[in-house]
Design brief:
Blueprint (H helix, E strand, L loop, with lengths): L1 E5 L6 H12 L2 E4 H9 L3 H7 L2 H15 L5 E4 L10 H8 L1 E6 L2 H8 L14 H19 L4 E4 L5 H9 L1
Parallel strand pairs: 1-3, 1-4, 2-3, 4-5
Helix pairs in contact: 1-8, 2-4, 6-7
Bound molecules: shikimate-3-phosphate (S3P).
Length: 166
């Protein structure tokens, strides 16, 4: 079984992914972490030297290479499902789970962390909120193709497991 966690930055994919993997006895993989290990630099450093299109191509390659592991929970970068046919590809190769958060919650979580997130471009206040809202509007058409959607600031691993497995 391959579980793909998708959603906007700050949605909680990495912490929930760790918890799910622990409960299920699966391996946990974070595509951002694999990216940084493979390129030996942070994503922010990579963005400073390359175009966003190279990042998207490389993160898709990473996704395809890690999804070959069996019994795995994969937390994906927030923009990955929106690249070309990635959403369709994930739906063919595993179970997609969208962690949905509202704009206010995302803003609260992301406003202290814009420095190391190139996509947020160090925006602050109202400009940041507007940027999150615009991006989320562009991306939700992809995210909403997920097989399962869980919403709310607190998503329990037990609820996810009971819903997707039983
Ligand atoms: C991005 C999200 C980040 C990371 C990169 C781009 C995005 O991952 O892949 O900074 O475009 O939304 P997280 O969603 O894990 O923060």
């Amino acid at each position: 079984m391959v579980l793909f966690l998708i959603g906007f930055m700050g949605a909680g994919k990495t912490p929930l992914g760790h918890q799910l993997a622990k409960e299920l006895g699966y391996t946990f993989i974070d595509t951002d972490q694999v990216f940084e290990l493979r390129f030996k630099q942070t994503i922010a450093e990579y963005f400073a030297e390359h175009r966003e299109s190279s990042f998207r191509r490389e993160e898709r390659n990473i996704l395809e290479s890690v999804a070959t592991v069996d019994n795995v929970v994969i937390a994906t970068g927030g923009g990955l499902p929106c690249y070309k046919d990635t959403m369709e590809w994930m739906n063919q190769h595993g179970t997609t789970i969208y962690l949905k958060q509202d704009i206010e919650e995302l803003y609260e979580r992301l406003s202290p962390q814009t420095q190391h997130r190139p996509i947020l471009k160090q925006k602050k206040g109202k400009a940041l909120e507007k940027h999150i809202s615009n991006l989320l509007n562009e991306r939700k058409v992809y995210y909403e193709q997920a097989k399962f959607v869980f919403q709310g600031p607190v998503i329990s691993p037990k609820t996810v497991i009971n819903t997707i497995i039983f």
